[in-house]
Amino acid sequence: QVQLQESGPGLVKASQTLSLTCTVSGGSITTDYYYWSWIRQPPGKGLEWMGAINYSGTTYYSPSLKRRTSISRDTSKNQFTLQLNSVTPEDTAVYYCAAFPRDYWGQGTQVTVSS
């Protein structure tokens, strides 16, 4: 069973860069044919897919966030990372990492952007 765990700061100042890491266990980000993804849910709103990286390192981004988003990976640690630049309080959300299409999810981590 693939397990995912998000980690990173819970508080970020506006205009700075939000960085989160997803550590994967029970699977490999380089050999398992999943889309290793980042999703977020702002308070009172629905889920928003942000982007993904696949087993070969190809990245995919939401058009609405592409300008500010970067997803990378550390294959030696079996981790993939989200960077979101120039954050505003509207980026406050619970951030999840997940593996599709098998629908494995991390527990989520709250990130608050202070103005």
Cα radius of gyration in angstroms:
13 Å
Distance between the termini: 40 Å
DSSP strand count? 11
Largest sheet: 7 strands, mixed
Overview of the molecule:
The structure is a single chain. With 115 residues, this protein is mostly beta strands. 0% of the residues lie in helices and 52% in strands. The protein has no helices and eleven strands. The strands form two sheets. Strands 2, 4, 5, 6, 9, 10 and 11 form a seven-stranded mixed β-sheet that branches. A four-stranded antiparallel β-sheet has the order 1-3-8-7, with no helix packed on it. The relative contact order is 0.32. The mean pLDDT is 96.
Put the structure in a nutshell.
This protein has 115 residues and is mainly β. It has strands spanning 3-7, 11-13, 18-25, 35-41, 48-53, 59-61, 69-74, 79-84, 93-100, 104-105, 109-114. The termini are far apart.
Descriptive keywords:
mainly beta, 11 strands, 115 residues, globular, four-stranded antiparallel β-sheet, 0% helix, seven-stranded mixed β-sheet, single chain
Question: Topology, pairings included?
Answer:
Layout: E1 3-7, E2 11-13, E3 18-25, E4 35-41, E5 48-53, E6 59-61, E7 69-74, E8 79-84, E9 93-100, E10 104-105, E11 109-114
Parallel strand pairs: 2-11
Antiparallel strand pairs: 1-3, 3-8, 4-5, 4-9, 5-6, 7-8, 9-10, 9-11
